[in-house]
Amino acid sequence: MTVEQNVLQQHSQKHQQTLLNQLREVTGTTDIQLLQQALQVSNGDLAEAVAFLTEKNAKVPQQDEATYYQTAQIGNDRYISVGSQADTNVIDLTGDDKDDLQRAIALSLEESNRAFRETGITDEEQAISRVLEASIAETKASLKRTHPEVWSDSPNPHDRKRQDSCPVGLKNVGNTCWFSAVIQSLFNLLEFQRLVLHYSPPARVQDLPRNQKEHRNLPFMQELRNLFSLMVGSRRKYVDPSKAVEILKDAFKSSESQQQDVSEFTHKLLDWLEDAFQMKAEEDREGEKPKNPMVELFYGRFLAVGVLEGKKFENTETFGQYPLQVNGFKDLHECLEAAMVEGEIESLHSAENSAKSGQEHWFTELPPVLTFELSRFEFNQALGRPEKIHNKLEFPPMLYMDRYMDRNRDITRIKREEIRRLKEHLTVLQQRLERYLSYGSGPKRFPLADVLQYAMEFASSKPVCTSPVEAIDTSAPPGGTTAQVPPAPSAVEQGPSAPADVPGAAPQLQQLQQPQTTTPSSRLPVHKPFTQSRVPPDLPMHPAPRHITEEELRVLEGCLHRWRSEVENDTRDLQGSIARIHRTIELMYSDKMMMQVPYRLHAVLVHEGQASAGHYWAYIYDPHHCCWMKYNDISVTKSSWEELVRDSFGGYRNASAYCLMYINDKKPFLIEEEFDKETGQVLNGLDKLPPDLKEYVREDNELFQRELQEWDAAQARKAQQEKLALAAAGPRPISTEPSPVDNTAPQQDPEYMEQPSPPNDSKHLQEDTERAISRAAAEQDEKSPEMLLSAALKVEYTRLLRLAQEDTPPHSDHRLQHVIVYFIQNRAPKKILERTLLTQFADRNLGFDERCKSIMNVARAKLDLIKPDEVNMEEYEMWHQDYRNFRETTVFLMIGLELFQKKSYVEALMYLIYSYQYNKELLAKGPYRGHDEELIAHYRRDCLLKLNEHAAALFETGEEPEVTGGLSVMNELVVPCIPLLLVDELEEKDVVAVEDMRNRWCSYLGQEMEPNLQEKLTDFLPKLLDCSTEIKSFAEPPKLPSYSTLELCERFGNVMASVTLGRTPADGR
Questions:
Q1: Ordered alpha helix ranges (H), 234-260
Q2: How buried is 155 (Cβ within 10 angstroms: 0-12 exposed, 13-18 middle, 19+ buried)?
Q3: pLDDT (tens digit, 9 = 90+) per residue, 510-523?
Q4: Which residues form the USP domain (predicted)?
Q5: Which of 361, 602, 607, 950 is catalytic?
């Protein structure tokens, strides 16, 4: 074959593959043979091919031998033909007008072909371009937004500072969570990381690039190196990948947007990396065939063995990411078995010349990094749009690939045949067992053993000779006729066996209103079920046989006992046999010779949402710390296998694994750290980087360090200005440093005990103090001020101790009445209690009689005598600050609950949010430091649910102002609060509430709506589905009014009494 012929053949195959991809994307059909037949029938006309595939009663033509071989022998394509996920911008095929439908399809395909002919850019590349354009546009638009976004950078750089050696996250620059998930998975393959970091562009690149690939791939490769270097050595908690995304965006030109598919992006990324390394390999080769490290790392080979009409063929193909169907399978091995065997394969290893057709795949060479694409999207032909498959699919942390290797072909075929035979036997046993467990011929069926038991109980019941409808009081109908109509028996009198068609079964109320005539001799006591608490003793509780002899009962009981034992034994035998067969199948490949090719799970890429919108994140195994890590954009947290299973297997919520990355467990170089050749020490941080990247990271770290210093300097200036302002306004209420105190400049008391507090509050505290002094004076013989002060302190402390020890309901919280009650319940040190009490009696506003003044002077003198080393003033201030925080939290909670009861949910939300956050901080120090966390969480959760319901109702109106208002409520209030509910996943009710809110908005995806509403919904959903639990920015807390102690206790008591009485258990819905 000449070079020209080879080029033409490759071009023809590539063009055919392009047509197949377009057909698959428009129609959702994944059957390669059916797609090829459609092209053949239509002579390459795509519009006719689509019409052929979308006909309701289209029949698949009988394929000929040439077509089959053409399908089986596509060898130039790098990947297996994949049932690609349908584009979210696919043409709507739900219209009723068939002519309009055909014109739309033809126009779409014509536009696609013209674009390909003019630019040489495929639909796949255009799809990537669309999402990149959307990402950049989202980034630019976010700079203009006035309301705070949940993912915006914190103004405080210390919040963005990396902690020790914690992995670095990636910022979501606008619908790029797919980028973060893939890049993190590849970055944590240390061999791949080294290849990228130590890549050097070919020398000839110093000149202008020769073609479009070089112009695109080499700059992208450099930006990927820069990004990886920052992920290695940056001092930032997360880094911005915008430059790499910009390079991708600049490669193509498009104005549409969609959220990118992980597998398609990974395909394209590996393509570009392979091309970049191929250029370098070709330059470095010395007469040998160049080796491309990307190919050696990610690509393998399999042997396709097939037969058609008795003719065998064998073909070797290369694969990268291996596609697997999810629908109809329960675990990864079932998916692989189905993917490795296509059609009926008996003729492949049968001596007879069969007319059956099929093929098998056998791996001849597995790549070190084995990636499986899980096809979780399917195209709904009836609705004309893609849908996500949420079925559960299990996968193991260690996968043994021996059964799929070509060298084990004969052994595997034997075992597959044995498994097939066992499954056939298993089906028979399960059918037999089902007959025992679901016995009967009607719609309701029961276990046969229970049926026999019920029969035995019926036969053994005490026999009665009367009918359930006999000897019941009869009544004459209205009008004095002599005809007697028996009244309807009550529910208890009828018993379970009362027939439904008893004459006279009229409503009881009607019968009670009718005159009745009854003969005295036949009158029986009437049972009144609503006024009597017992059943008449002569009525049996259960139906029973009317006539049965002892002999009959003995024979029947013997038979029923024997039959029930036989049924139970048969059921146990069947269940045991089924369990043994399951176990035999599970252990079929457990012998050592079939466990020689181990692959360990390295990364799981997860998608949450629906087909047209969602969020991606990744779970990646850290072999050095032996734990799973969750990479969710800027958030990198420690996780567990249990959390991975919950989010990745599917069947639970809307999250499921979309891509699995396994690595060869016998090739440790994939995840081994790099060592210094001289010292033998592990290279960490900047030591892992080549000189150019080391300098690049060092400059970025210096820039971030200057940002930290500028922030600290600005905060110091701000604190100094506030200090000067406070000094100009007057002395601070509390000093954190102990200082000498004289009579002319007394030390200030805590703000809730001092003079500037509200008059009523000061008067309340003053009255308590004077009351203690009066009581002490009445009990004390010696009237000296010192003795009176000591006695008054004892009286007041005894009163407060009694309050602290009372078991009170939430609406009567004594902690609000006095700080000492709060201190006692939280076991404050004795010195703190003594100084606080002395401060109370040293108040200048105590009174104007001489006795109170003298006691005040003694108390102030005692305060002056307390040395700094006797009471730790920092600890003293800390306890009083905690109490101030407690009162502040109480006010937040009180106002939030009052607004909630008034249905002012927008205003109530911030109060409830901050009361929960502050209360949580208090409870972290002790169980009596704050309020009932569950109660606050209930109303915080309920408030968000009501706001979500209100916003969804506004969106459903379809009117522009209401839609904008509803989305504004979601973006500004609900979405920023979702991470607060997810940060503690132990609170299952909060997680369920978040899922309810997300499901409400995801349900709109399947509904007809105006294009502008669809656009707004598509733009909003990724924000709602973002699973990050990190709080990036938030609104300032509301300013609180000042309340006296009496007013605070009264209002808080009223609102707590109403909410605790009316509160129902919260289920998050």
A1: 242-250
A2: exposed
A3: 443 444 444 444 44
A4: 168-665
A5: 607
